[in-house]
Write a structure and sequence with these properties.
hydrolase; metal-binding; about 65% helix; mainly alpha; two-stranded antiparallel sheet; 10 helices
Length: about 210
Amino acid sequence: MTNTAPSLVLPEISSARLTGLLEFLQSAEQLKDTLRSGTTANGRPESTAEHSWRLALMVVLFEPELKDIDLLKLLKLALVHDLGEAISGDVPAPLQTPGDNRQERERRDFLTLCEPLPADIAEELLSLWDEYAAAVTAEARIAKAFDKLETMLQHVLMPRQEASFYAFNLGYGVDRTDCSPLTRQIRDKVDGLTRALMEDAGRESA
C-alpha cells in the first residue's frame, strides 16, 4: 500500500540555529530530575517536568471552557513557567517566604538556560516567563490558577498524609484560584476531596 499523503515542505534551518535549539532542549531535560516535595500516587518523588506536563494536559482538557483565552499562549505558559527550576530546583510552598528572592533567582537561572537559544526564541520564552510571573493577563492568571489546582490534585493522589498537610492545602493558592467562576468551581471540588482525606487522617490519629 503506497502512501498518498502529500509531502511536507518544511525547509531546513541554519546549522547554528539547530544547534542552539537542541542544546537548550538537552539542558531543559534537567527538569526531569528536578524533584518536588510531592509524590506520585505510588509514593515516588514527583519531578517538576511531570507537574508541567499535567498542567499542560489540564489546559487541553478544559479547552472548551476556556472562552476568549489564547490557548496556544496558555500552553506555552504552562510548559515554560517552571523551567528555571532546572537549575535552581523547587522550593516547596511551605518553605517559601517573602523576600527570599526566589523569583529573581528563577528568572536568572531561566536566562542561563536560554543562553544557547537563537535570539528570537530566547526573547519569546523570556516574555512568556515574565508574563506568567506578573500574572496580569488572562492567560497568566489562568495558568497560575491551574498550577495551584494541579498541585492540589496531586496532593490528593499521594499516599495518606497527616491532617495538617491537608489543612495547609485548603488555604493554598486561594488568591490564584479565585480568578474565575471555572477555577473556583474546580477548587470547590478539589477542596471537597481534600477535606474528606483530612477527616480520615484525623480519625486515624485520634
